What does this fold into?
Amino acid sequence: MIALSAKRASVLKVRQKLGKYRVERRLADGGFAAVYEATDTIEGIKVALKIPHQSAVNPAMLSHFRREVRLIARLEHPNILPLKDASFIGDQFVIAFPLGERTLSDRLRRRLSVEKALDFGEQLLQGVAYAHRHRIIHCDIKPENVILFPGERLRLTDFGIAKIAQKTIRGSGTGTVGYMAPEQAMGRPSARSDVFSSGVILYRMLAGHWPEWPFQWPLAGSSTLRRKVHPDLMEVLRRSLSIDPKRRFADADQMLRTFLPASRKTIRLTEDRRRRRQVTG
It folds into this structure.
């Protein structure tokens, strides 16, 4: 955790009341906001509270946020985390979300089967593709912004909020280093940039390695990956991670349409190999 400065939000204490919310514990702290687990004492449910640091709350930020909320409200999809509430409680600006079990970053500390990686990959692309069909790009797709719910339902969060943070924090980039596309780092994000970030996560889940700059093939772990997945899926990953955005999929919707049949072929390949091992074993 990062220590809060005087210009940031006050550290909330366990059991502290904030309107109808009772704070249970702090979950994370970043350059834009701190995140707390809390109980909604009226609805009787657990929620996540994102509280921007005081230095980030200004008229420009609130104006941006109002516009983004109107956009996010249109994104009703099972793989996108809905916004429950956004309002001032006293002098604190509070953003409330449903509380998940853990982040994808937490889950990646343990090994994923090929089938589970493909399941997570499909859920991620379904959410991003839905947003792209509504002409909304995320700009900060990373495992920390992917929340897992019971039944390992995956939901992408921080739509719009990531862009607000980038405009608010002096000297901030336009995404997160290690996940953002080269053109996004130069201030030219697009749907193709979200494709790149999604490809980075997919590669990590399937290969067990993070692809790194300059993203030239063969990437770390590609020899192992080639033995695990169908060649069509290798091509999906290669295309999504192209340095040249024009060589990538135009958006996540196009990527998803290519990913799905390649995923099915990989699953059949995995099942065939498992059956052969059982026969010879």
